[in-house]
Amino acid sequence: DGRSELFGGRLPAWSDLVERVLAQHDITLRLGTGAAEVGADVVRLTDGRVHPTDVAVWAPGPHADPLFRDSGLPVDNHGLLSLDDTLQVQGSPALFATGAGTTLVSAPRAPTSEASSLRMGEVLVRNLEAALAGDEPTRRYRPRDRDLTLLNAGDGRALLFFGPVAVASGWAMRLKDLLDRRWVRRFRGFTGGTGTSG
Predict the structure, then answer these.
(1) What does each C-alpha distance from 75 to 103, 127, 143 come to in angstroms?
(2) pLDDT in tens, the chain (198 residues)
(3) Residues 6+ apart with CB under 8 A from 91
(4) Beta strands 158-162 and 165-169: pairing type?
(5) Are 7 and 15 in contact (CB under 8 A)?
C-alpha cells in the first residue's frame, strides 16, 4: 500500500525482528512499492525493479470494505466503521460491530490482536444481550496499551511482541501453542460447543 516502514515506523524493534526472520528464510521484503506485473518466476515492481521469485506474497495491509463508506454510516479517514466504547456504531445505537474493519473513536490507534478480539467479542455479546432485553448496553471495551502478540515463524520458533520487546525463540513457540490451546478451550466453552481431540 505504499508504506515504506513496517508498523508505521512506530515499533522499530518489531520491524527489525520481522525483517531479520524473513531474511533467514530467504524472503525478500520490499516496502513502499507495488507489483506492476507478476509472472511465473518474476515480479516487476512499480518502481521498475525486477525480482526473480518462486512465490510472491502481496501484503497490502488492512483496508476497510467500501460497504461502510457507501452505506452512509460514520467512518474514519481510512474508511473504518466508527464505534463507541460499547461497540455501537456512532449515531446508530441499534447497530453493533467489531473486527478489523472497525475503529474505536476513543482509541483510533489501538492495536488489534487475538486477545483483544476475544475481549471485544465478550463485550459485544453482553451488550447485544442487554439491547435485546430492552436494557441500555453498559459494557465498555477498553483497549490495553500493550498486548502480547505471537506469530509462528514456521521453523519451530515464534515471534513474540510485547510493548517494545521483540524476540524469536522456541520457548515463544511453546508459549504460543499453550495459549492457542487455552484460547480454543475457552472459545468452545464460550459458545457452548464441544470438541474432541485426536
Answers:
(1) 8, 21, 19
(2) 456 677 666 678 888 999 999 999 998 888 878 888 888 889 998 888 898 888 888 776 666 778 888 888 999 888 888 999 999 999 999 999 988 788 899 887 776 666 677 788 889 999 999 999 999 999 999 988 777 889 999 999 999 998 889 999 999 999 999 988 987 887 676 555 544 443
(3) 74
(4) antiparallel
(5) yes
